[in-house]
Every structure is written in C-alpha cells, then in structure tokens.
Amino acid sequence: MRKLFSLMPASVKILLLFLVVFAWFFCTEWYSPAQLIISGSAPTKDGLLQIGWESGEGYNRYESRRFFLNSFPEGGENTTVAIRYTGEKHPASLSSEIICSGIAVDNLDLDLSTVIVRGEQLAGRKAIRLSQPGDEIVFDANARESVEIQIDTNNQSGKVEITVNGRSKTIDLYFANVEAKSLTFRYWLVGPEGEFRVTMDMPRYRVKSLTVANGNPKNEVFVDEIRIVTDSIGRVLFEGQHEKLENIAFRRVSLPQKHYFHPVQFLFQLIFAALTTWILTACWRIYTRCRSTGGIFFQKRRVFWVFFAVSLAVFSVWLLAFWPGIMSVDSLKIWRASVLPEVFLNDHPLLNVVFYRYLVGIWNNTAVVPIFHIVTMSGVLAYTFYVIHQQGVALKLLIPFYLLIVTSVPVGLYNVVLWKDIPFALLIVFWAFSLADFYRRRREGEFSLTKEQIFALLLLLLALAFTRHNGLVYLAVVPVYLVMLRLVPIRLVTIILVAGVGVVGVGFLLLASDRLMPGGNYLFSQGAGFLGSLLQKSIPDLVVEAWRSYWGIFNINQKESAWDLWHYFLNDRFSYSFLIHAGWSDVYKYLVNEPVFRQLTDFAMSVYWKSYEVPYVYMSWNPVHFLVLYVLAVLLLPKFPLTAIFSSFILVQVLTLIVVVDVMNWRYYYFAFLGGYLLVPLMLLDMQKGRKKKVTAGELINEI
After folding, report:
1. What average pLDDT does range 173-194 have in this prediction?
2. How far is CA 239 from its chain centroid?
3. Sign of dihedral through CA atoms 672, 674, 677, 683?
4. Which site among 23, 48, 110, 525 is 20 to 30 Å from 65 CA-CA?
5. C-alpha gyration radius of the chain
6. Sign of the CA dihedral 544, 671, 429, 521?
7. At residue 513, does pLDDT exceed 60?
C-alpha cells in the first residue's frame, strides 16, 4: 500500500488529501430550528406545564421552560389585552417610553392598525411608541391558543403595565446591553372544553434527554400528543388517550434536527478544504526542503523551536486556568453565527464569522479559538526572534525581551479570550515586521518572493483589512509601503490596487442594505458618523487632541476605558438570563461555572490582580515606555531604519483610532502593546547591522 501511494502522481495525492480534509469539514453537524408541540386538556382550565432538557451537565433551571395555562380568569369569548404607559422607569434608564414592536394571536401577526391605540406609530417600522400619560394599546383577541406581545428592551425604556383579562403585571424594560433587543410575553389559553396547545422552540444543539411534567399536581393536566416539528416534518414522541400527565421522559429528541448539508455551508467547506490542503502541502514542502539541509531540527533551527515550545507551554497554562476560554457578548454573538449556517453578521466584520466557521469545522468547541491564538502567537514570536538572532543579535541580548512578552500578563490573558483584537494585533505585528525584514533583505540583495508567497501575503492583507473595520485603512497603506520600500514595481501595485478597489466596492454595495445581511449597512452608518465628526474639527485641534490622547492609550485605569477591565467578561458565557433574553440560548448549552483546575485558576487570578498595582501596572497594562520608543524610533530613522518602518506601520493604526474613530478603549490598542515588546530587539538588530554611512530621512525616501 505504501509503495502504491509513493508511485501516485503528486496531483492525485493532493486530490486525495483534499477529499479527506473536505470529508472532515463536511462532518460538521448543525441543528435546524424545531418546535415541541404539546396538545391536551386541563379540566380545571388551569395548569402548569414544565419542560426540561439536559445536554450533558444534568437538568438545570436554564435548560427549562414553564408554561402557565389559563393563569387568568375567563373573559368571555375574547381575550382582552391592554398595554399601558406607566411613566415609571429604572433609575439608569434614559427614558420611560415603551415601544411595542409586535403582537401575535395564535402565532399570526396582528395588524396594529386594527387595534385601539393612543400612541405614536413609528415611521419605517411596524411599531408603536407609548411615551405620554394615557398612552395605551387595547384590543380584544379572538384567540384559541395564545397571545404574544413583543416589546423593545434597551437603555431608554421604562416600565410597562400589561393587563390580560383583568390581571395586571408591571415589567421593567430597561436593559443596558444592546444585544438584548426585546422581551416576548406569551399567554397560553385553555379552550371552552379545557383543550390547550403549547409550542416551544427546541434548542439547536444535541439534547440527551427531555422531560415534560405537570408543574402543579393540584391541577390535573391530560396529554393527547407530544411531537417535534422540524423542516415541516413532524415526529410523534408521545400519543395517548387523554392520559394524565405526571412526568414523561424522552431521549435522542434532537436527532431529526441534526443535519450536515447546507448549500452556503457546503460552499464554505469546499473553500476551507482547499485552503487547508494548500497549507498542509506547503508545510510538507517546507519539511522536505529542510530535510535536505539537515532537517527541521537542524542546529541553526533549534532556536526557533525552543522559542516556539516555550511560548506554547506558557500560554497553554493560561488556557488551562480559564478553560475553554473567555467569551464576551461580542464573542457569543459571532460564535453563534458561526455554528448556524443561515446566520451572517456585519456589525462585526463578516470575516470574523467566516474565520470562526473555519475553526468550528476543525473542532466544534470554543477552546479551538484560544488554541489558534496560542499557536499563531507562539509562531509569530518564535519566527521574529529567530530571524533577528540569525542576523547576528546575540541570544543573551534577546532572551530577556523574549521572556518579557512570554510572561506578560495581558498577552497571556488576551490569548484565551475569543476577541477579534487578538488575530488583528498579530496581523499588524506580522506585517510591520515583514515589511521591515523585506526592506533589509532587499538592501542586502536577498529579497525575492515566489508566486505562492505573494498569494499568501495577499490573503493575509485581506485578513488584516477585514478582521476589524478600522483595518480597512491598510488596503491603501500596505501598497504605499510596498512601493516606497521598492519591494514591488509601482505598476503591479497599481493593477492590484485597482482590482482590489473594484472587488471591495462591489462587496460594499452588496452590504449597503440590511436586506441582504443584518448589520450590512453598519460600516456605512458608522463611517459617515466618524467622518462627519472629523470634518468639524480643525487640523491644529486634531493634532493637539491626538498628542494628548496618545499618551493615555495604555492607561487601563482611566475612566474612559473602565469597561475594558479583563475580569468584566469572566461570566458572560454563564449569564444565562441574558442568553435567553437575547435569544442566543438556542446554541449555548448549560455549563457548570466551575474552573477545571481550581488552584491554577486562583493562582492566575492572584497574578492578574497584582498586575494592576503600582509599579507592576507600568510593566503590564500601562507600558508608557512603549509609546516613547515608537516616537523615538521614527524620529531616529537614520539610526534605526528597520525599527522606524515597524513603528510607523503600527502608528498608522494608532492615529486611525485616535483621530478618525476617536476611541479610547484599551483592547483596541492591543496591537500597539504587542508590537512594543519587539521595539528593543529591532533596535538591537539595527545597531548590529550598522551603516557605513548614516542615511538621512531625505536620502532614505529617495532610495526607496
């Protein structure tokens, strides 16, 4: 068999590898929407159904729902509903207004123009605002199953009073997180003969077992049928003859929801398989080339592997302390979109969803993202220090700076968070160092790139531009650097730039409306706001403001960035009431909020809290010396040309954030923090190389 494989043409081997990789990605399961439907009767016209399920951690309050049957007195043939403005609000709310965004009777949307309304019809959406004393929505619903009321929740909502058949309840609609957009209140009805029909959305993940129980044995409930409907196909779980309900358990109920094929996901899987096959074959070619020159662990290459292994080990300790990683609300939103093939976003750049979807195809566990961060961070650091050492800088000078970044508390903690800031920072640092190294190699007559390397760099440029919206500036900046540093002919850059602008322009037009993708017009609306604010300021004011803001971008304790504190996000994944409110509980299982390695976690947290104390904060969260070195390197360009190229590339994004976006958020500047650790090693490289004649700024510009 081995001999037969060795005789195969290379193209056949690559095709076989592609098919194996594609099969792996294709086996990524996903779960379609489904409803659990329970039909039966409540003789007392009152009752409580309790539904619970477990996905691996046992039954719990999060994975359960309660349904009150006719929990209000009868109101004749119709159900009378009133939604009233109270004028009351939460102390933190900016307003006491109420916005009703939808009413459904027996799962059919009600035309709000047919109900009695004392309020304001909102233009552009089917919703009613109640904001004045006496404002209310009143109607009689000829309902047989349920009445559903949807009301907006945000930081400018007040308290609403909902009355159904004479029973009133006041609910506070204030919610600070914008992702929890609304609350839905559903009232389940019992018919004249006691009949009822209850529906519940099933979670979109594997359910090991499910129970349907009578939550109040004092009121008898009888069940006729329990079934699951998915993709317009029903599966009967239970069918009885008016059987008294106590507690019924089911297993493998999510099996009908389980799917592997989705047309859009299938297309992505083909792309992912092709990309992975290319990466694996490229790694194999590197391995074979190294084997002909002593092997990948040849003496000169051992430095790289030692750097890589040490970084991998240290960063992995942080991951074990916070396994399987830390998720913020942003992370929860993006990960959810990555596991549901029909969901796409652009308020967070679409590339993040595609990137997570790729990682989900490798391993459907949130830990795959921190693992990717750790491996790529270790690789970039090992490569950078290895190249600098190969150019003559002694290891004894480099090791202290390498240990500084490997043992850095912010770097260790950020690696384990599912944030787009981490790959974005790595891409900026990679490009900054690569441009400086390309310039060095060109001056020494060693610079050349294969077509494959050019293609890889093009992909990495697109990743840099589209991982964060503010990365778009590099679509123009990188070509400028390539031309100024004489790395590529200006004609080639012009062709690529024009083609790129065309492709990006078409993409922007497709995203210009929310019709194609939720949040599609986010970039346009935000960009217009940023540019409008920028044009209102004079250039001298901008310079002064940028200079003042620059020196505070790492100050983690300043009031403007207090929300950046890392520990604020420790429990977002376990905020189960929020997940239900936001509608994201469909993909997030219940997890026990307990560390896997308690002692390691406690030790990591003690180190974390210590890092905020003076003087340690100036070596962790507020390294002002990095900011000095960035400016110094650019000013001393003749002495430190490589460091100046690296620093200027970093400062482009710093100025973009300070001047254009006007944001003082610590993690937005994580790239500058990460790059700061490489400034002194690059300065050592500049000094090692030396110059036979000092190059002035003007001479350098003329040369490049």
Report:
1. 89
2. 43
3. negative
4. 110
5. 30
6. negative
7. no
How far apart CA 568 and CA 587 sit, in angstroms, is 23
Name 199's Cβ contacts closer than 8 Å, sequence gap at least 6.
35, 36, 37, 38, 107
pLDDT of residue 508: 60
Contact call for residues 658 and 551 (beta carbons, < 8 A): no
Q: Yes or no: say if 517 and 346 are a contact pair by the CB < 8 Å rule.
A: yes
In the numeric block, the tokens 């429990």 are attached to 571
> Is the pLDDT at 89 greater than 60, yes or no?
yes
Q: Is 488 exposed, middle or buried (0-12, 13-18, 19+ CB in 10 A)?
A: middle
The answer to whether residues 636 and 644 touch, using CB atoms and an 8 Å cutoff, is yes
Task: Say how far residue 449 (Cα) sits from the centre of its chain.
Answer: 34
User: Which helix or strand (DSSP H or E) is residue 350 part of?
Assistant: helix 350-362
Sign of the Cα torsion 367, 369, 372, 378 reads negative
Strand order in the sheet with 167-172: 116-118, 136-141, 79-85, 159-164, 167-172
Q: Measuring CA to CA, which residue among 331, 321, 334, 344 is closest to residue 419?
A: 331
Confidence of residue 696 (pLDDT cuts 50, 70, 90): very low
The DSSP annotation for 206-219 comes to --SEEEEEES-TTS
Tokens of 379: 């690789």
**pLDDT in the model for residue 491:** 76
Write the pLDDT tens digit of every residue in 527-559.
Answer: 555 555 555 566 776 777 778 889 889 988 765
CB atoms within 10 A of CB 71: 16
Q: pLDDT band for 5, please (50, 70, 90 cuts).
A: low
What is each CA distance from 14 to 8, 23, 266, 281, 282, in whole angstroms? 10, 14, 20, 8, 11
CA 85 to chain centre: 36
Residue 540 token pair? 């001298």
Number of C-beta neighbours around residue 308 at 10 A:
19
Do 274 and 18 contact (CB within 8 A), yes or no?
yes
pLDDT at res. 693: 47
CA nearest 470: which of 663, 227, 241, 250?
663
Separation CA 646–CA 648 (nearest Å): 6
Q: 35, exposed or middle or buried, with CB in 10 Å at 0-12, 13-18, 19+?
A: middle
Residue 6, pLDDT > 50, answer yes
Alpha helices in 391-489 (DSSP H): 395-406, 409-415, 421-443, 451-467, 474-484
pLDDT(72) > 60: no
Give the list of residues 6+ apart from residue 676 with CB closer than 8 angstroms, or none.
623, 625, 626, 627, 629, 630
**What span, in angstroms and rounded, lies between the C-alpha atoms of 297 and 139?**
78
Element (H, E) at 671: helix 670-676
Neighbours of 300 (CB within 10 A): 11
Question: If 0-12 CB within 10 Å is exposed, 13-18 middle and 19+ buried, where does residue 686 land?
Answer: buried
Q: How far is CA 350 from CA 49, 56, 375, 576, in A?
A: 41, 31, 23, 26
410 neighbors 652 (Cβ within 8 angstroms): no
CA distance 222 to 302: 72
